[in-house]
Amino acid sequence: MPIAHGPRNSVKHWNECTDVHDFLEQIRLRPGVWLPGGSLRNLESILIGYRIALGVHAVDEPFDFWPEGSFARWLEQHLGHHSALGWASEIERVTPDGSSPVEEFFRLLDRYRAESTSPTFAPQPQPQPQPQPRIEHPSMQAVRIELDRHNWGALQCGCGRSASHLPDTLLRLIANRTPGETSLVGIDNHVMIQSNLMDPAPAVTAVVLAALADPNLTTPVTRTVLLQLLLDLSAGDTPQQVECAELIRGGVWILYRELVAHPSIDARAHAYETLSNLDTEQERLAAFRHALRDRLPADLR
After folding, report:
1. SS3 288
2. At what angle do helices 265-278 and 282-291 cross, to 10 degrees?
3. Per-residue pLDDT at 128 exceeds 70
4. CA 197/CA 215 separation, integer angstroms
5. Distances (CA, A) of 129 to 56, 169, 222, 256, 278
6. pLDDT by residue (tens digit) across 9-29?
7. How far is CA 229 from the centre of its chain?
8. Is a pLDDT exceeding 70 seen at residue 6?
9. pLDDT category of residue 1 using cuts at 50, 70 and 90
10. CA–CA separation, 72 vs 196, rounded Å?
């Protein structure tokens, strides 16, 4: 399927580009150079790197291509359904015969840009469902108190907005009872982007520890996901990791409890690796490792 091109630029070096759309035009002109194999997920990773560079160098430039950004919201309206896959995977999924994902992306991008510059264009805000269990577990009050301690609106989220949407995301994750819907989809690219921790990371660490304090508050599947999140927070590459690690050290016996009692070998591995990252009381950790070696993955025994 041919691409409905907008105004074409000439080929130039990437450092001559003026903004993200100029940069994307260079990828459109030479997709084989930038995207070997034609994967849009590679393009999504490139654009996330572009946005991180803007933040590192304090460049104030509009950016529409976060997984939950304005392009993704427009795509949901255009396709008529919501997808948790992200815009790159969703475009690859719906690419028609006779076209390619890269061609389809640029065709949709041209339409998005044309509609977004129209005076009648008004993208609908992404809904923020707030399900509440009918009978809330008593320990959820501790989680809510911890959530209320933090000024989420003053924290810069990884998505470029304030972190004021994160409390609802965390509550839904903690209260979830459906295994197939328990994931870090609403956390990745918000609290952390790959190994880069964002401003809300310490506050999220404190909330996760509050949720793990009572093992009866969450399902085993949810606890596994929360332990995976703690592991990621304990191993970040940015300055927020120091504060996250200190908070986790304060809840070290939560991790030892999960190491001993959690039914999932993945959860026990997350707990062990987080304890290893804290680099404290290695003699104690070695004793637990020796006693529990048959309950750990082979590479951790």
Report:
1. helix
2. 160
3. no
4. 26
5. 32, 9, 19, 34, 36
6. 577 777 778 888 888 888 898
7. 10
8. no
9. very low
10. 22
Residue 120 has pLDDT above 80, yes or no: no
Helix axes 40-56, 101-116, angle to 10 degrees: 50
Q: What token pair was written down for 291?
A: 């006693």
**HSE-CB for 185 with a 13 A CA cutoff:** 12
- Amino acid in the structure at residue 210: A
Helix (H) or strand (E) holding 290: helix 282-291
| Residues 77, 40, 225, 222, CA torsion sign | positive
State yes or no: pLDDT of 247 exceeds 90: yes
Nearest to 74 by CA among 127, 117, 116: 116
Q: Whole-angstrom Cα distance, residue 22 to residue 262?
A: 51
Is residue 208 within 8 Å of residue 226, measured between CB atoms?
Answer: yes
Residues 185-224 have pLDDT tens digits of 889 999 999 889 999 999 999 999 999 999 999 999 999 9
Query: What whole-number distance in Å separates Cα of residue 135 and Cα of residue 190?
Result: 29
3-state SS, residue 287: helix
Residue type, 150: H
Q: How far apart are the C-alpha atoms of 39 and 31, rounded to whole Å? A: 10
Tokens of 101: 């994902």
To the nearest 10 degrees (0 to 180), the angle between helices 201-212 and 220-234 is: 150
How many degrees, rounded to 5, is the angle at CA 173 between CA 193 and CA 176? 155
Paired tokens of 31:
């997709």
Q: How far apart are CA 80 and CA 74, in angstroms?
A: 10
| Confidence band, pLDDT 50/70/90 cuts, at residue 32 | confident
